Structures are given as structure tokens and as C-alpha cells.
Amino acid sequence: MLTSFETTDIDNKYLKNYPYVKRLITGNYQYQQVLENADYKTTLEQQIRTFVDEQKITKPLIDRRNGIIKHIRKILTNKFHNSKLTSFGSFESDLSLALGDIDLCLEFDGEPPKKVLKKIARMLNEDGMKDVKLIANAKVPIVKCVDNQSMIPIDISVNNNLSVYNTELLRRYNKLDSRVKPFILAIKFWARNRGICEPTSGTFSSYAWTLIAINALQTMENPVIPNISPKDGSNEVTIEGKKFDVSMNELNDIKFNSQNQDTVGELIIKFFTNIATKWPWNDSVISVGNGKLISRRQKQWVHQKPFVNNAIQDKKIVRLGKHSLPVEDPFDELHDLSIVLDAEGVFEIRDEVLRAYTLIHDLADWGAICEVKYPEISQLAPQLDLFQDLRNRETPKIKQDLEELYTLLGSVEKSVSVRESERNDAIRMSKALRKNAELAKEQSNLSSELRPRRSKINELQSKRDQSNNHYIPVHFIEEELQRVYQTLTEDSKSGIELSFEKEKSLFSWFFELQSMHEHAKLTRKYHREFLRLVNQQEQSVEHIKDIRQEIISINSLGKFTDFDDLAKRLLVELNPLKKERRRLRREIGRLEAWLRKQNQSRKDRPSGRKSYNKRKSNHPNLNEVKDKVISGGTFSLQDLDVLLKNGGIDSVNNRHVDHKKSSPRSRKGKASLQPHRGKRGKSKNNQ
Fold first, then answer.
1. pTM across the whole model
2. Which residues, at least 6 apart from 459, have a Cβ–Cβ distance to it below 8 Å?
3. Where are the domains of the chain?
4. Domain 12-84+178-377: which topology?
């Protein structure tokens, strides 16, 4: 029953936080492996079924979640153009607890994911989200936060495209058997309440516990579900240059009839019995993709140093070696989900498994097994009623609060405006000083080039003059060379041959021309380089003159870095002010919405059938609208809609005309301007 890390010598003083592990190691923990109590199994089954019913996702919760996703999508896609925000995870696979979080993936081609996540974290913090955290060192870096109104947790990753296929795989497993969902929800609920479902604390993620639960159903003596990942290469995808086999069987093609007739309660008992007494990680890897436990040696995932038992006794060891409690990702077979575990997390997982096994044998109820271990970090129920705190308050008090909020908002707006103005001035001053410094540097560089170039010009001029004091154009020499060559080599057209003296003179002249040609080419080279440098010198001098006109003489304004620092300090002051401004605006909007709702409720309160019909056809009167226009009063979109349907602005002078009610056919195709309210945050209590 002992695990591999429990069979080694561990000083008991390091086990004070793990009482069940300590009892097992010291030999004080012994239970029969098979629990035979039919009444308890029936009771546990009823309790788990009741618990599952409580986890149903209500329409108000769906509306709130969708509203949050829509809000975040608007924020991120406005910032990251051509991006796409996708929801995945337990909510999409229908394996989410009522207090489950929202998993989002931003698909974006551009900057590295970690850099994008830093920007996302900053944007969410500025938007007023709570507890914004960037977890950059995970296999899949994420930003975690909590919606400030509903208190629903949110996880955002970047280009985590494989998660979409993982979600679909879990969705299909969920559809295979009616016991899969309640079984997985029960395991996740237990793990979360007992504090072993948080990767940032060194324990498994919710996704890892889901895979552990599915693998348990696959590997029972009578399997509840089969393996639906054939790994036949029928569906391969390439993500960030890596190929993944994401093939999975269609539900209609799965021919499997489970011989297991256990209830969910009995499956839960077997799960804790097996994991407590036959610790699967001693020699095996949890593999949902293979539908079984596979050997560590086969997978080559042997636990590497430092080991769990050493790390728990040596506080200097921060991270465990790879593959402490290996759980293989179904599609990314190189990814071990236990990479997040630390020594305390492993011992805590083991202790909680033994505790659950003990309580089951003590015939404890489901509530005791899943009792919240850390109340200070337990998740609160989502706040679905935006007006819950206002329902029992008097309207005058709400109006008074609204006036106070407007006063506070005015003060914050003023502070924001002042600091934004100062920051913009600092940024402009920094840019001006930086430009001035750049001009001065450019002038200095140009000036430093003038003297060496002048020397180079003089040197080239001297070389040119020395090569040929009497510069003869190269083409003149080449033409003369050609003429002499033809005279010496071609037959005379007159038939008179050259005399010996004449021929000798021409040969001498030909050789002299060749020498002149070499000197002329060299002279031309020096001459052209000389002209180029002179031209550069002239341009530099003109540029320096222009720069001197642009440069501002500054003695006491400081450096541009001073204004950069000032702009940063002002930004640090601005961020909390802007956050407070958003909070005040939202609260003002909430109170005003409640007052409008209350006012509308009083107007629409029915008193018999007649008033109900009147309320049902609550449309502005045409003559009333025309009176508003003539008097210069304000009118709503509904008023404008009525006016446009009845002749437009030109009909205003024709007052008190009895228009016939248009038929449905005549109204068809006409533009209708109706105000629409956003759906975010709606619930039955908000209607």
C-alpha cells in the first residue's frame, strides 16, 4: 500500500502536516480493501446525485459567462488586430462545476505569447479585473483574474490551440456513459475543496484530475468507457511547427457496451480504494490517450532527481525532478501534467487520498469527504444579481448615493485630466529634448568628419597632380592608340608602305601612348574621388548650417531622461485613478439602471386587463412627438422611429392629423430604430 516515496526513510517531523501519510508510514493505518455496506453505498449515491443536481449551469450563469466573454473579446480584439478569442475547457465539454472558471484562448499571429500575456494582464488590470496574475513559467503560460462584478474566475492563454481538441475529446467521453459526468464532477469537487486542484500551489490542475478520473473509468476491472483515441494518423494538425495526431472516434462509430453496472457512488468508492491502496504512479503513467496505465520504462518517464522524499526534507529544493506523478496529455504525448507539482503538493495529494479512503470506511457522508479545507481561499458563488444590494434600499437613499458618486467622479476626472495634461507635456518635452540632443550629436559628428575629409581631399589632389600634371582625357589617348595601331597593322590604302624610320617613330609613339593611358586612368580615378569628397564636404557644411538653425540653446531645462521619468511617475499615478474612474462610472450606471427599472416598474404596474393592454402597446404618440420637435425638447430613438414612419421632419407642421394604422404588410421593410440594451449581466432577478 506504501508508495515508492513512502518506503524510504523520512523524518516524522516533516510529516506533521500530513497525518494520514504519517499513520501509514508508522504502520497505524489499516483498512480492508473492499467495503461491503450496501446501505452506505446507496446513501452515498443519493448524496452525489444531489450534489450533481446542485452543479447544474443555470441560464443566468450562462448569460453572465457569455457577457464576460463578450466583454473580454471586445477588449482584446480591439488591441490585437486579426486575433480570435475562443472559449474552451470544462464549460465547453459540459464538465464544469457551478463555480467553474472561464477558459479562454487568444489566437494571435505576432509577438511571443509571454509578451502578449503581459499586455493582456495590464489591460485586464486597467479594466478593473480583480487578482490579475501572470503565470509565465507554466508549460502553457496564462493570465488569471476574477471578474469584479460576478466573481467568476477567468484563465486566458495565447495560441493554446491544442486545447480545442482536448476539449472535444472530453466532450465525447462525457457523452459515452451517463455516469461519466457525475463521476468527474465529484472528483473535481473533492480535489478543489481539499486544496489539491491548484497548479500555482504545487498540485494538479482541474484538467489533470479530469484525465485521472477518465483513466480510472478506463482501467477498472470492468471498464466503464473505452479508449476513443485510435492514434491512426487520420487527423493530424500542425501547431507551432509540431505535428499532433488528434484523431478520435466519432460517437456513432464507437461499438462498446460496458459490462460495469456500478452506480456513481460505487465507482467513487472504487476510485479512492484503488488510488489509495494501489498507488498508480509507483511504476506507471496515467495515459488517457492509450486508455490504460502504461509502464514508466516504456514511456521513459522515470522519476528524475530531486525525488519527493528528499525534497520534503530539504527546503533548498524548490522544484522536483521530472515525472513525479506522470499524467500524459492525450495528444501532446511529450507533455507531463505533473510538471507543476512540488514536494508538498505530492504529499498533500497523497494525504487527501488516504483521508477520503479513511472517511469512506468510516461511512462518512459526501459533505464530510469534500469539506472545504482552506476557507480563506474557497471560491464564492457567482454574483448573478447586479441589484441584490439595492432591492431593500429606499429610492431617496439611492439617489443620494448617486449624487455623491457623481461628486467623486468629478473630482477623479479632474485629477485624471491634470495628470494626463502634465504627462503629455512631459512626453512632448522629452521628444523635443531628445530631438535637440540628436541634432547636436549629428552636428558634432559632421564637424568631426570635416577635418579628416579635408586632409583626404588634399592628399587626392596631390596624387592626381603627381600622376599627370597635364591631364589629357582618357578617350583622346584611346582614340590615338587605335589610330596608330591601325596604321601599323593594316595595309595602306594608297599602296605606299611606311618607311623604316616612320614605322620606328610610330612604335615609339604607341608605347608612349600606352604609358600615358595608364597615367590618365589613374588621374581620372583620383579626380573623380576628389570631386566626390569635395561634394560631400560642401553638403556637410550646408547640413551643419541647417542644424545650427534648428538647435535650441538650452541651459537649465534638464535632460530628456528626466522628463521620461516624470512621464512614468505620472502614469503610475494615473493607472489607479483611471481604475477608480471606471469603477465609479460602472457604479453610477448600475444605480441609474436600477432607478430606471424601478420607475418603469411603477409605470408598467398592471391593474386589470385594460392596463395590461395599454402597457403592451406602449409606443409614443405621433402628435406628442411633433409637439416635442416644435417646442425644441429632446426626444428618444422611439420618438424618432415614430416620426420617420409618419412622414419624417416635413410632417411636423401637419399636427393632429389622424393617421390610419398601417397594416403589417405596409410596415414590412421599413427601417425600425429601437434601442437595445446589452445582455451582459442579465439574470432573472434583473428583469
1. 0.67
2. none
3. 12-84+178-377, 395-561, 619-687
4. Poly(a)-polymerase, middle domain (1.10.1410)
